[in-house]
Amino acid sequence: MTAPSDISTRTATDLPNYNNALVPSTFSDPLEHRAFLKFRLAQAYRIFGKYGFDEGVAGHITVRDPIRPDCYWVNPWGVHFKLMQPELLLLVDHEGEIQEKESGPSRFLNRAAYMIHSAVHEARPDVICAAHSHTTYAKAFGALGVPLDPITQDSCAFYKDHSLYSEFRGIVDDREEGLAIATALGSNKAVILQNHGILVATKSIESTIFFFISLEKCCHVQMITDQAAAARGLRPRLIDAENAAKTYKLLGSEIGGWFSGIPEFQLLEHEEGKRFEYVPAHNENM
């Protein structure tokens, strides 16, 4: 197998603070853009599966459709994350209606996915991708009902850019609960859902996946730190506001998250030997 190389990016020397860095691709053909986002979203699910971010049939990642921005792509309910492929994805509008012509063969939609993601995508037109799952450390830390502290360089990526939804009203099966979660998210990129999990919403699939993985790790580190500090009769040493804000500016930005997320997709492509190739379909639905 050849060495990993990313086919969804280009190299530029004019990106501030990221000289000779990869930058997101642009698409002149909306159908190619749609095909790429579907390919990338399916990859994102398989990355979640690799990390063990599945919990039975719970959890979902969505991406806004570039042709019909009032719709988003989501997984069919009941298919394992590791098995997700572009042709299986469902196109759903903000009313929860599956778009028959564009969607995959399994028309089983997770109602909670619709309630949460429709509310987020409607409230935040800037959001391209949103991810939610019931990951181990996010659930455990979320049960404490507190936000993260700026205790590490990595946690500073969420400094004043994450919130807490301090309610749990059971499975999200009504529009009001989805709206409450979207309201709690506000303009932030992440929200900790008390007794539930986490949700991350950003302007790209890559940044959403990176920040989701990072937030799960930060929840883990916070609990380890709190436990160690308590055992010694100490309190964790917090990073001061000035340096936390400075670190956030570098690590917590959209481009920073996108750039940090790219290696996850590079590795997956290297392991699977499968890269994006666009073959125009004359009968593609728009």
What's the short version?
This protein is an alpha+beta fold and 286 residues long. Helices cover 38% and strands 14% of the residues.
Q: Topology of this structure?
A:
Blueprint: E1 9-12, E2 21-24, H1 30-51, E3 60-64, E4 71-74, E5 90-93, H2 111-123, E6 129-133, H3 136-142, E7 162-165, H4 175-185, E8 190-193, E9 197-202, H5 205-231, H6 241-251, H7 254-272
Parallel strand pairs: 7-8
Antiparallel strand pairs: 1-2, 3-4, 3-6, 4-5, 6-9, 8-9
Helix pairs in contact: 2-4, 3-5, 5-7
Could you list some keywords that capture this structure?
disordered N terminus; 7 helices; alpha+beta; 9 strands; 286 residues; 7-stranded mixed beta sheet; two-stranded antiparallel sheet
Task: Provide a descriptive summary of the structure in words.
It is built from 7 helices and 9 strands; from the N terminus they run E-E-H-E-E-E-H-E-H-E-H-E-E-H-H-H. The strands form 2 sheets. The protein has a 7-stranded mixed sheet, sandwiched between helices. A two-stranded antiparallel ribbon has the order 1-2. It is α+β, with helices and mostly antiparallel strands and 286 residues long. The chain starts with 8 loop residues before the first strand and ends in a 14-residue tail after the last helix. The longest helix is centred in the last third of the chain and has 27 residues, at 205-231. Helix 2 packs across helix 4 and helix 5 crosses helix 7. The protein has helices spanning 30-51, 111-123, 136-142, 175-185, 205-231, 241-251, 254-272, and strands spanning 9-12, 21-24, 60-64, 71-74, 90-93, 129-133, 162-165, 190-193, 197-202. The protein is 38% helix and 14% strand.
